[in-house]
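Methods, example record. To illustrate the input and output format used throughout this study, we show the complete record for Leucine-rich repeat receptor protein kinase. The sequence lines were provided to the predictor; the line carrying structure tokens was produced by it.
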Amino acid sequence: MGRFSTIFAVLVALLLIQTVKYCDCENSTSSCIQEEGEALLKFKHSLRNISHGLSSWKGKDCCQWKGVFCDNTGHVVELDLRGNFSSYYKPVAPEILEENSWLLKLKYLTYLDLSNHNFQGMIIPNFLGSMKSLAYLNLSYANFSGEVPYHLGNLTALQVLDLHMYDYGRGDQLYVNDVNWISNLSSLHYLDVSGVQFGGTRNLMQVLNSLPSLTHLDLHECGLNYSHIPNHPVNSTHLATLQFLDLSNNYGFSGGPIPIALRNMTSLRVLHLTGNSFESSIPDWFGNFKSLVHLYLSQNQFNSTLDSLISIFGNTCQLKTLQLPLLFHSAYELVPMDYLIAKKFQGEFPGNLPGCFGLALETLDLTGHYIGGALPYWLGELKFLKYLYLGGNAFSGSIPTSLGKLSNLRELVIKNNQLNGTIPNCLGQLLNLRVLDVSFNSLQGTFSEVFLDNLSFLKELSISHNNLTAELKTNWIPPFQLEYIEMEAIKIGTQFPQWLQTQKQLIKLDLSDASIWGVIPNWILHMHLITHMNLSYNHITGPLPENIGSSMPSMVSLLLNNNLINGSIPSSLCNRAFAIFRFFKQ
Ligand SMILES: *[C@@H]1O[C@H](CO)[C@@H](O)[C@H](O)[C@H]1NC(C)=O
Ligand SMILES: *[C@@H]1O[C@H](CO)[C@@H](O)[C@H](O)[C@H]1NC(C)=O
Ligand SMILES: *[C@@H]1O[C@H](CO)[C@@H](O)[C@H](O)[C@H]1NC(C)=O
Ligand SMILES: *[C@@H]1O[C@H](CO)[C@@H](O)[C@H](O)[C@H]1NC(C)=O
Ligand SMILES: *[C@@H]1O[C@H](CO)[C@@H](O)[C@H](O)[C@H]1NC(C)=O
Ligand SMILES: *[C@@H]1O[C@H](CO)[C@@H](O)[C@H](O)[C@H]1NC(C)=O
Ligand SMILES: *[C@@H]1O[C@H](CO)[C@@H](O)[C@H](O)[C@H]1NC(C)=O
Ligand SMILES: *[C@@H]1O[C@H](CO)[C@@H](O)[C@H](O)[C@H]1NC(C)=O
Ligand SMILES: *[C@@H]1O[C@H](CO)[C@@H](O)[C@H](O)[C@H]1NC(C)=O
Ligand SMILES: *[C@@H]1O[C@H](CO)[C@@H](O)[C@H](O)[C@H]1NC(C)=O
Ligand SMILES: *[C@@H]1O[C@H](CO)[C@@H](O)[C@H](O)[C@H]1NC(C)=O
Ligand SMILES: *[C@@H]1O[C@H](CO)[C@@H](O)[C@H](O)[C@H]1NC(C)=O
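The corresponding predicted structure is encoded as:
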């Protein structure tokens, strides 16, 4: 039993062969070269235990087998043995492998995908470095560990190398001690080594700059610091054509500036700098990144003011994503990040749109800083905006009516500010809105169907903690199916709102302190999906529906305290394990 059969016993135990095509050979009429077919069959027959994943590997013509692709002279040029995540978790015994050469018989192989299988911490076999025709090698999400073999430096035809680790931050990781072999990969245009640790290697920039065609570079979570990407000028003639760079989560930059070595990379379209704990201002030379489309800056401690940041991007006309929240906006909650001492952006929005800033913007996320002042009227000019997250700041004044012009807007989150005035009726024209969250402000006035009658895609309605009075007719039939309703501490002042009866997909219902009176209607038992229900601090009377526990099997939090409910706790609630259950007066 040789090295190859063991690899593939491991592999095929988990095999899901997909037909992702790299070469254009599906209509090939030629049949398999005999020697190559035999090599594949030898491999198949040497498999221990199983071969069901390769059940189509029979018959003379290997070019017809699943995952095997030939060119029109019958040579195998592509082996696509990509697995899937569910196979990833199946346990397989790790094996130490010895050299074997059946794969080397496939001399014309240009494409090899072994990604998404669990190799159980095995080292990457050296012989891959002898497969000189390879243009595509994908070993990502495959739980390899140990040193990446320098033998891969022989693959001078390689255009795509994907070693993306599945699970970084663990002991059994891939690492590189000497990066010099990478400079031999002169055809490379796509390099993803995220999770691979670069330790004490020094000349990373020089090596990367020697790759003339590199456009995509993923160095996410590689343990990098200023010795790898220095804060001084470097020769970056070739790196100047890089289009994609991911440097996120490299904690070695903590407390320092964005390295100047990036300054000449003016072709960048995508730049990820999330989670590096940089402590500095955003450098002016970011203004030279005129091709930027997506910029991710969250989880750093930049001390720029908002107006200076925006003016830097006055000539970045294609920017679609500007993301720098200090808090995560996830699952409809604001989740504080690790470091509460983080510096925050201060300042205000500039009075006028600088240059072409924002004309292509689709996502603007400034969640959780100290930005104050008014929301400018020009926000309504950012006509491609889909996601606007301004929650957790110090904005004051009223919501500009111009927001009603943002016809592409899907999510509007302006919670936790000091906004006053009324909710402009024109927000009801945002026909694509999924999320409307204006909670925890000082908004006033009435909130009626006028806002909601056209919002047929709405999933989240959060208006809690404002001086608002809901005036929704009892026979109103909403156009939407909501998942999240938060109307805490606003005035409803009626019996349990009838229109809720139409909402069959509710996950969270918060109507606490909303002046609701009367009994809980039996139709609430149809809301089977609810996980969080808060009806506390109202004037609810009568007994609870007897089946409330059994009808709402997903419920994890139920708050009914400070009402006028009488009778006993229904037995259907007795054997339920809630994270929070409040019934009695607090
Ligand atoms: C393969 O042949 C089919 C039918 O003749 C044709 O529609 C298709 O475009 C061909 N595919 C390629 C990749 O040449
Ligand atoms: C599968 O392989 C293992 C390990 O080589 C062996 O112990 C076991 O008997 C084999 N099972 C079958 C059904 O062949
Ligand atoms: C993943 O692989 C497993 C086992 O081979 C298979 O049962 C499952 O259907 C596959 N899942 C997908 C989404 O392809
Ligand atoms: C490599 O494989 C992974 C997982 O199968 C896939 O997500 C990724 O896109 C592939 N990489 C390239 C460059 O095709
Ligand atoms: C990856 O391999 C290591 C070493 O054998 C093993 O401990 C770990 O469980 C594997 N990871 C997964 C997700 O199976
Ligand atoms: C690189 O290729 C040469 C010549 O084909 C071969 O002798 C050598 O063993 C290969 N090196 C590695 C590291 O695979
Ligand atoms: C890389 O190229 C250099 C010079 O061209 C050569 O000496 C060296 O052996 C190559 N390294 C590998 C790993 O192929
Ligand atoms: C800069 O790097 C390129 C590519 O590696 C190289 O050709 C050039 O000679 C270098 N220039 C200087 C001044 O070192
Ligand atoms: C940018 O490139 C110029 C000329 O190509 C070079 O002189 C300068 O040092 C580079 N700057 C940085 C920060 O690498
Ligand atoms: C931002 O922080 C850097 C580094 O701590 C400091 O040099 C700079 O003066 C600060 N800028 C502002 C505007 O506070
Ligand atoms: C709203 O707040 C602004 C600034 O805080 C204040 O000047 C204005 O009078 C307030 N308007 C209302 C209607 O309360
Ligand atoms: C709430 O709004 C009403 C008018 O809608 C106003 O009379 C009242 O003073 C406001 N209360 C607070 C606390 O601002």
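Annotations derived from this record:
The domain at 1-197 is CATH 3.80.10.10 (Leucine-rich repeat, LRR (right-handed beta-alpha superhelix)).
The pocket of 2-acetamido-2-deoxy-beta-D-glucopyranose (ligand 2) is lined by residues 48-49 (CB under 6 Å).
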